[in-house]
Structure formats: structure tokens, C-alpha cells
Amino acid sequence: MITLTESAAKRIANQIAKNDAIALRFGAKESGCSGFAYVMDFARDIEPEDAVFEQYGVRVAVDAKSLPIVSGTQIDYVSEGLNQTFKFSNPKATDECGCGESFAV
Fold this sequence. Notes:
By secondary structure, the protein is an alpha/beta fold.
């Protein structure tokens, strides 16, 4: 399961509407110094093998390959000084690189 905070859901819903999409596509790819990096994109269709989660009216599609890596992740949208960014809390992450761009499971 993927969970969204209310602030993340509001931001994602706004971006889904702007991008003529039906869902957020969320997953992980091999990358960085720790092994994996989160990937976010907009889905215009849902694939049969996707797992779909919905909160606050926002659908999140996760491909079958990424699901074991990102299952349980909470997506938040936070303000840090003058910047706003998405933050990921993944209980399966055993390590994160110093720059915060990649993680290990």
C-alpha cells in the first residue's frame, strides 16, 4: 500500500489535472549510490499489472516490479525554507545516500 498525506494529495491532484492524467505513477528504479531512486510520473492509463491505491480522491499506480520495493511508503509534500518538495517515508529502506536521492532495501 502507498499512502499520501493530505498535503501530498492536494499537490498531486493539482498536477494530475494540469497534465491531463488519471493517476500518479509511482515506483523505483536502480540508480544512485544506494541502489534505488523514487520515480514519479503521471499516468494517462492504468496497466493490468499495476497495483492501484486511492486516498483523498487521488489514485496512485505502482508497477509490479516496483511494488515490493515501495510498498508501505508514505508520500508527503513539505515546505523547507523557500522550497517545497515531496518526501518519502519507506519502512523498507535500510539506508539512504547523503544527498537523499537514493536508498537501499
